[in-house]
Specification:
GO terms for molecular function: monoatomic cation transmembrane transporter activity. This is Cation transporter. This protein has two domains: about 1-195, Cation efflux protein transmembrane domain (Alpha-lytic protease prodomain-like, Up-down Bundle), CATH 1.20.1510; about 200-284, Alpha-Beta Plaits, CATH 3.30.70.1350. Helix content is about 65%, strand content about 10%. It contains ten helices and three strands; from the N terminus they run H-H-H-H-H-H-H-H-H-E-E-H-E. Helix 2 (about 10-35) crosses helix 3, helix 2 packs antiparallel against helix 4 and helix 4 packs antiparallel against helix 7 (about 165-180). The radius of gyration is 26 Å and the shape is elongated.
Length: about 280
């Protein structure tokens, strides 16, 4: 439709939507695999045997690819829009362009509502990102619909000279407006892929570990935390005084349970290790 109407903005919207739809299918597949891997059935056990550390790492990888592609498309569209303005604009068949924008807007709104309702059950960052993508696509299409609707009555008027600039101007403005959204998602995905320590989670774990250290008379602790997708990985090493009197294993297990309960979170998506040692090298 973009080629038929001569609209670069519609071509951009189409490419953006195709990429977003492809990533939607991938996101749903990954979410389904993660749910199966954490289930108690036969499929969950098979996936657990094959992927002992879980499949949570797939979420930030998918978000990373999605964010990179959308950022690249938006930047390319903005540059083309500016070049179109400098070249004197572009003639567009407004009739087909208006029909496309109206139909696409209905589809985007429907998919955004469906995604939000579905994610109430899945609670997935991937599905949330996909829903944001449909909202962004709907915003892009709505902006194009408004721009073409304004341009149509300008034909035959004193402002007809402005009509060829509507398409490249709309393309540049829309591409620039949506760019911050995939940039934020891309930055978050990069932090998760690189296992950058999340400050809020680290502060929460430090608070629990410091309290346990005081109450149990330990010498100190070492904490290592990471977050990827909706999963968290936490490793805690408590430094026990050398020569401390021995205690039953049940005592240490009960203390681990208390630490886990204090940290909280969904146990299905939490990898928690709590160890006790008198040798600081084991905690480094």
């Amino acid at each position: 439709m973009g080629l038929a109407s001569g609209s670069s903005a519609i071509v951009f919207d189409g490419i953006y939507s195709v990429v977003d739809s492809g990533m939607t299918l991938l996101a749903l597949l990954v979410s389904h695999l993660i749910l199966r891997a954490t289930s108690a059935g036969r499929a969950g056990r098979r996936l657990g045997e094959r992927f002992n550390m879980g499949l949570w790492h797939l979420e930030p990888l998918v978000v990373l690819v999605d964010g990179f592609l959308l950022v690249a498309i938006a930047i390319y569209a903005f540059v083309n829009g500016v070049k179109g303005i400098l070249a004197g604009g572009q003639a567009v068949e407004l009739g087909p362009a208006l029909v496309y924008a109206a139909v696409t807007l209905v589809v985007c709104v429907t998919m955004a509502v469906f995604g939000r309702l579905r994610n109430r059950v899945l609670v997935s960052d991937l599905v949330a990102l996909d829903t944001k993508g449909w909202i962004m696509s709907g915003g892009v299409t709505a902006a194009l619909l408004i721009a073409f609707a304004i341009a149509r009555p300008l034909r035959g008027s004193d402002w007809e000279w402005f009509v060829p600039y509507v398409d490249p101007l709309a393309l540049s403005v829309v591409a620039l407006a949506i760019l911050p959204v995939p940039l934020r998602e891309l930055a978050q995905a990069v932090r998760e892929v690189l296992l950058v320590t999340p400050a809020a989670l680290r502060a929460e774990v430090d608070g629990v570990a410091a309290r346990v250290t005081r109450e149990q008379g330990f010498l100190g602790y070492r904490a290592y935390v990471a977050e990827f997708g909706k999963a968290t990985q936490i490793e805690l090493y408590f430094l026990v005084p050398p020569g401390a009197p021995p205690r039953p294993l049940e005592h240490w297990d009960a203390l681990r349970d208390a630490v886990g309960a204090a940290i909280g979170g969904d146990e299905r998506h939490r990898w928690l290790t709590v160890a006790f040692t008198a040798d600081p090298e084991w905690a480094e």
